[in-house]
Recover the amino acids of this structure.
């Protein structure tokens, strides 16, 4: 089958070991990689306006087909002019296919070759998402990067199940590829294969054959030990085409990003900076802290003296601790703002270090300062 | 007793009927009146950063001695450099004394000539606020305008009780006046007297004698019918000194502001624009609407086509309805932003109409368009 022409362009600008500096050009935005995508599940990066996202340097955000299909509905968003217009975001967008969510969020689900029947996590109503349905949803949303509908298994699954699921994901990828998207959209494949190197390799080869404009590593960060996550990333990333962006889905902590970049990964998303922020958990260049801790109640220093974000320029730990302690929504917002700035600043520094061929120095300096829990 | 010198200046710039255009100059900001003060009870106007407040034209915000005394504590805020620095707000601030809150928020309370013993609404712990304690709290906070500690009775109170309470509030006002504040702070008196014209007049005379730099009308918006609120405002406002700012506490709806301006009031605060916003209740120039209503789910118009705020320039009713429906915090924030902009825009238009001696035309035009429920 002839692969559809893609509107997405990827240029490899520099390499430093396996780490890569690239440039992705989509219809809505062009950006350098490695990049971190803030998660805006329900067409909103929680608490952040589009101006806030711009101010911290966001180029691309991730949203979710599963959530938007259920609420407010993809047809509604399409009628409203698509996801970008709906949420007043003129940067790039990537939508996840729903493959992961129908397994992890909905209670009952029933898988078949056709797709996945599931019960909504909102009201229990019954739905079915197939590869074709996922494409219909993401087509309506109008995201720049569309993800194939994949099957994602739990960490504990048997190798036999993982192999069968990998084969199904390939068949589903082909079905997704057969659906016409909008001309500005590009479809990324998702590599599965669990924690099995041979299955990962087979799947990479099958998907490469299909010539997608980009490739994701799926099925990680599903409960495996962290050493396994790193090891599998090091194994999986080089299997994917060198001349296409590589996206590690749903990962992760700052150190996970750095290790994945070292393995040759270009794109990341994770709810960690946003979800943690709402619980008062804040990233600094030396460690993760929880601002709710009483020891910060009189601390008049910024969240991170080494951070130049608006929050660190204006507000003290004592004030942020007060906001969280009093249940004030500004507390969650300001910590979200800071955490996303931290992630984008981290990945920007990663890019600069690759450009200047000193990624390993950066990585060592990072670990010297950052306390990994 | 010699009244302390005040750092607050009030200039009457224009009059149109009883409506007044003035200018208040405090240490932190100078602003024209009539003015609306967004409420930032716990040292945060809920969901709004100081940059947001600046962007919508906020000049002065109100915060609360009762809340800040209980959490995080006024000493802590003083150690942190005062309320302005703590919340990174360089405009003016006014703090309420706690007189109203110890009656309305705390469960058990016991009044005496000394002050009010009460149980914290947060943890039930026992506390006492006296006039001196309220001054100590507000001195520590460092607000530009400090309110006297007053006794505020329920609407149903007997005239005898109201009279006794009014006398006590005068004695308390003197005790407040006897406390040294910081040099940049100014103390406003609060007129009580319930719904009784004679008591209101007596109290106005007693307080005027004490020569405060500003005067508030207290004890309204405590459950009385709206006609009574308007009637009492018309009666009470002219009793207060003409050459001092007049502040109607805790009022109110857009139409209440307009009627109070017509009566000669200069300053307002109310939780309505902020509290309503978080429940999806939004002010427009034609009516109050609730954005959660299903009829807005596909409405691609702005909250108010006549509003030029950031929210109305960028977002549709359909998007805002989605955010509220999905419980997304951005929904509360964007509606707060819009509602405060609406209140500040309304009061700005009121000021322009007084400056141009067409306040009555403005008032009539407002009612012609605005549907008062």
């Amino acid at each position: 089958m002839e692969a559809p022409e893609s509107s997405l362009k990827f240029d490899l600008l520099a390499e430093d070991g396996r780490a890569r500096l690239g440039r992705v050009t989509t219809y809505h935005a062009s950006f350098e990689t490695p990049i971190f995508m803030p998660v805006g599940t329900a067409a909103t990066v929680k608490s952040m306006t589009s101006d806030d996202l711009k101010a911290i340097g966001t180029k691309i955000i991730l949203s979710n087909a599963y959530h938007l299909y259920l609420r407010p509905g993809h047809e509604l968003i399409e009628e409203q002019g698509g996801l970008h217009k709906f949420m007043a975001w003129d940067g790039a967008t990537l939508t996840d296919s729903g493959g992961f969510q129908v397994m992890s969020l909905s209670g009952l689900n029933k898988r078949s070759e056709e797709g996945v029947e599931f019960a909504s996590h909102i009201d229990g109503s019954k739905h079915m998402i197939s590869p074709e349905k996922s494409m219909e949803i993401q087509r309506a949303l109008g995201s720049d990067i569309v993800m194939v509908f994949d099957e994602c298994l739990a960490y504990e699954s048997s190798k036999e199940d993982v192999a069968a699921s990998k084969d199904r994901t390939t068949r589903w990828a082909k079905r997704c590829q057969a659906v016409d998207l909008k001309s500005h959209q590009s479809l990324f494949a998702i590599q599965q294969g669990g924690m099995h190197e041979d299955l990962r390799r087979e799947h990479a080869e099958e998907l490469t054959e299909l010539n997608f404009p980009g490739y994701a590593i799926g099925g990680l960060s599903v409960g495996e030990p962290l050493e396994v996550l790193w090891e599998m990333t090091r194994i999986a990333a080089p299997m994917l085409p060198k001349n296409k962006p590589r996206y590690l889905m749903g990962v992760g902590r700052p150190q996970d990003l750095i290790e994945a970049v070292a393995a040759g990964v270009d794109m990341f998303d994770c709810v960690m900076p946003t979800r943690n922020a709402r619980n008062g958990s804040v990233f600094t260049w030396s460690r993760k802290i929880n601002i709710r801790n009483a020891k910060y109640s009189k601390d008049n220093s910024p969240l991170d003296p080494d951070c130049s974000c608006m929050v660190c320029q204006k507000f003290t730990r004592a004030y942020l601790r007060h906001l969280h302690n009093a249940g004030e929504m500004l507390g969650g917002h300001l910590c979200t703002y800071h955490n996303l700035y931290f992630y984008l600043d981290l990945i920007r520094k990663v890019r600069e270090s690759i450009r200047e061929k000193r990624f390993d120095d950066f990585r060592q300096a990072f670990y010297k300062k950052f306390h990994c829990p």
Observations:
- The interface with chain A takes residues 42-44, 46-51, 71-72, 76, 79-81, 86-88, 297-298, 300, 310, 314-316, 318-319, 321-323, 325-326, 328-330, 332-334 of chain B (CB under 8 Å).
- The longest strand of chain B covers residues 9-16.
